Amino acid sequence: MFTQIKTSKENKEVVTLLTRKLGLGTENVIARMAFTYSLSKDRKLDLNSIKDSSGKEYSKSVLFGEYHDIYLGLVCVHYGLYKTDKDIGRYIKMHVDDGLQLLNDEVNSRSNIDGFDFLSEKITSNLLKITK
């Protein structure tokens, strides 16, 4: 059962930088965004490619708050797992790490974007996709 994860050493700094640059709340909010952003790419990550666990540590309650069942459900549906699967924590860790890298690359490719503009653009572009 998933109780905590640790990001990669590289992503310990990335989550801090993204938190400062986007100004959307605390580091756990950015990690939560990273997790869902990675899942939204609809890719299945390979457990053999898991990164080190020398970075920022998040407990289940800090990372997902009172909605941890919903976030766990997202992983279960995406991978076809049952909620007690031993690998759920590893998948969550991989998607947090992956999402942090994706967000970092995207935010760094745009010089002056704040968190509100970033989220507004993402919401608008995805709404346009589903209404077409």
Poorly predicted residue ranges: none
Number of strands: 2
How is the largest sheet built, in terms of strand order? 1-2
User: Regarding quaternary structure, how should these chains be classified?
Assistant: single chain
Tell me the major beta sheet.
2 strands, antiparallel
Strand-residue proportion: under 5%
User: What is the overall pLDDT average?
Assistant: 92
- Give me the strand/helix succession: EHHEHHHH
What does the overall shape look like?
A: globular
Helix share of residues?
55-70%
**Rg calculated over all Cα atoms:** 15 Å
Which structural class best describes the helix and strand composition? mainly alpha
**First-last Cα distance:** 40 Å
* Count of alpha and pi helical runs: 6
Describe this structure in words.
With 132 residues, the protein is mostly helical. Helix content is 63%, strand content 5%. It has a two-stranded antiparallel sheet. The relative contact order is 0.21.
